[in-house]
Amino acid sequence: MGNCPAWMIFLASALLLVLGNLEVVNAVGCAGSFFNANSTYVQNRDNLFSTLADKVIVNGGFYNASLGNSPNRAYALVLCARGYEQQACMNCVESATRGIQTNCLNRMDSYTWDKDVEDQISCLVRSSNHSTFGNLELRPALIYPSPLSIEPSKNISLFEQQWDGMVNGTIEAATDAETSSVLKYYGAVKAEFTEFENIYMLMQCTPDITSQDCKRCLGECVTLFKTQFWGRQGGEVNRPSCFFRWDPYAFHGAFGNVTRVPAPPRPQAQEKGSSATDKKGKSNRSRVIIAVFVVLTFINILVFIGLIKFFARRRQSYDRINIGSAEYSETDGQFMLRFDFGMILTATDDFSSENKLGQGGFGTVHKGILPNGQEVAVKRLTKGSGQGDEEFKNEVSLLTRLQHRNLVKLLGFCSEGDEEILVYELVPNSSLDHFIFDKEKRSLLTWELRFRIIEGIARGLLYLHEDSQLKIIHRDLKASNILLDAEMNPKVADFGTARLFDADETRAETRRIAGTRGYMAPEYLNHGQISAKSDVYSFGVMLLEMISGERNNSFEGEGIAAFAWKRLVEGKPEIIIDPLLMEDPINEIIKMIQIGLLCVQDNAAKRPTMSSVIVWFGSDTITIPLPKALALTGSQSLSEDGTMSMSNVFTELSSR
């Protein structure tokens, strides 16, 4: 709070500590708003729960899914510890879902870290009415201390020093950046202490968060245990995004063939014991209650006064900062927010390497934080590039007039001297290519999630082609230009090479070919002919990539479209489909392959519009046209127009 006196900060810290104590006492793994036990949400949640045990096995130990429509859509995330046995994992997940259904009867948010009957595997099940995928979730916290205390004769000071060193080593092991497994963020360590028996420690985070978030989560688990129950012989702290446990015995199969001893029962609350223990518990509770009232009495008025002063100073500070100014362009009649370059430098910490998100031919992208606390992505174009100047002006003029949930949002720009900078909303999950072409991360993309991403991209293109006040041809549609927000919703990005069409214009020609080979339609690549069907072709290539999990240029020079056509003619669609999807509805996936092949037809007139594609996505009754043979396949086995054989192929595949 700026210049707040030290005693005010001390009292505020005391209040937070007391409230932290109360949170631990009351946390039960259930939070969020309430719902009716017979609501559509709970039906969706329970239906989703019934599939988790099977799906987590198919997806390598980690699975994220949702079911239903907003506002009753249910989201679930499930994780098994590394080294799991399939049946033990399934038993653990089934036990966890039953626990949530029993103990969180009417709360939207819930989670539990459960164990199988032999204590050899832990698993997480988490549910909510909103997506938590990719977000660090710390509340509520559950803590389970051992009922036994460390013997007074032990050297507690030495023990704590060695214990802290073990904690640091386990956190480093769990967040090792070199670990590439889907079940990353996992550390199991056994250590020998000088004056104490062996200690065993286990840490794990959900693999959808960042390494830094995992470190923070585990660190807060350790701090919570040491603050509340230091001196106990072991314990466990659970948070929605991570798990921490330590004990003086091997409580998990990860510790190898170490002889196990029966685990002491995990107390749900302070167990009855000696009268001294009871008195101590009552005394602790009394001190907490007294501390709450004392701290609140002293601090309420002081904090209120401090906040008034703080926000007054903050408002004055904002008045002195040139965040941006509205600039009016006479040519297109649009207001655009111009950011001050000094503010951009402050927001990105002088474009520090720690804030760098990525780099391409255009320049670099850095994360920034504006004075109002908003996180942004700052795209700094390479200096002195004539093409960069043109793309900069193009993107500013187009994106200021486009607003759609599946398009990245441009917040403003900066143009000072030779600096040209674009400021976008921050989309935290990077681009689609970082998921779909990564062998480990691809397993996070379930078929349901892939379909949602594909459909979102299609809706973004439909808006550009038909529904916006402008008619825009993107010209460089590919996985690296699709950004994913916190809920994995796709946003079409990079409009530097986009082309503005007149309302009645359907096709144009250009001498400047801009885009990425492999995604360009043949008429555009060979003759410079641009139309909405150019984007449809690029969309078809990307759709087939989403189904296969492989890049277009990975198919020995022929491209994914020709490869997919040949495999379908041979009646071998399983070669096209990502092995991770083989347990999903094959008929639906084959239908998507059919749509993808229609989008990459050599003749632009034979390709569908994006409005047709959207209709096909949502209908099981409309007859979808059959694609024709592609020029690059060189196929000789089809009938004259390629239709009859293809019809037989799709009929046979769909009947499987």
From TrEMBL:
Signal peptide: 1-27
SMART domains the record matches: S_TKc
Membrane-traversing stretches: 288-312
Keyword Transmembrane applies: yes
Annotated Gnk2-homologous domain residues: 23-132, 144-251
GO CC annotation terms, alphabetical: plasma membrane
Listed GO biological process terms: response to abscisic acid
Domain of life from the UniProt record: Eukaryota
Residues involved in ATP binding: 379
Residues in Protein kinase domain copies: 351-617
Membrane topology: Single-pass membrane protein
Catalytic activity of the protein: L-threonyl-[protein] + ATP = O-phospho-L-threonyl-[protein] + ADP + H(+); L-seryl-[protein] + ATP = O-phospho-L-seryl-[protein] + ADP + H(+)
Molecular function GO labels: ATP binding; protein serine/threonine kinase activity
Subcellular location: Membrane
Keyword Cell inner membrane (UniProt): no
The protein's name in its UniProt record: Cysteine-rich receptor-like protein kinase 39
Source species taxonomy: Eukaryota, Viridiplantae, Streptophyta, Embryophyta, Tracheophyta
